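Structure (tokenized):
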């Protein structure tokens, strides 16, 4: 009889342990979901109102930064069949006037970075729109890596001929 009482107590103790483990797991899961939702939404009010976010983006995109022209350059590009080249001119839109001054000071470094990047492109890469968009993004990254006190916001191709 004493053995039966001990066995029944062990069973109820085990089920209490299982129940408490389940409760702790559910609480931790709810906390994790709450943290995930908070991080996803960013905890900012403007994420709740997308029209305010769009208006702010439109306002920033209308603001034009200082512009710096890079003269026309000609670069041989890679092609297996024949000799090809790119003739291009670029205008850089900077984020601050200080950045525009830095670009003028570092123009030899920037031109070198541009020529090395473009010289490793192939004719098919530069022929279509997607290739030009990718080149623009790569140029922004490359030029920004040269700059210390500013950034390129946008790049405009003012002349672009591939032959």
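Design, position by position:
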């Amino acid at each position: 009889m004493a053995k039966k009482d001990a066995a029944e107590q062990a069973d109820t103790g085990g089920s209490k342990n299982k129940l408490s483990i389940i409760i702790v797991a559910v609480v931790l899961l709810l906390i994790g979901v709450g943290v995930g939702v908070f991080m996803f939404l960013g905890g900012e009010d403007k994420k709740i109102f997308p029209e305010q976010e769009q208006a702010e983006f439109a306002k920033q995109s209308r603001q034009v930064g200082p512009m710096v022209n890079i003269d026309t350059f000609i670069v041989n590009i890679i092609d297996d069949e024949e000799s090809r080249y790119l003739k291009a001119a670029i205008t850089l839109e900077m984020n601050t006037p200080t950045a525009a001054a830095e670009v003028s000071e570092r123009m030899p470094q920037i031109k070198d970075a541009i020529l090395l990047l473009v010289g490793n492109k192939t004719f098919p890469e530069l022929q279509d729109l997607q290739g030009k968009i990718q080149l623009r993004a790569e140029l922004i990254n490359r030029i920004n890596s040269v700059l210390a006190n500013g950034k390129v916001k946008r790049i405009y191709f003012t002349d672009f001929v591939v032959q």
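Reviewer-requested clarification: The helical segments are 2-41, 50-62, 97-105, 107-119, 123-127, 129-146. The radius of gyration is 30 Å.
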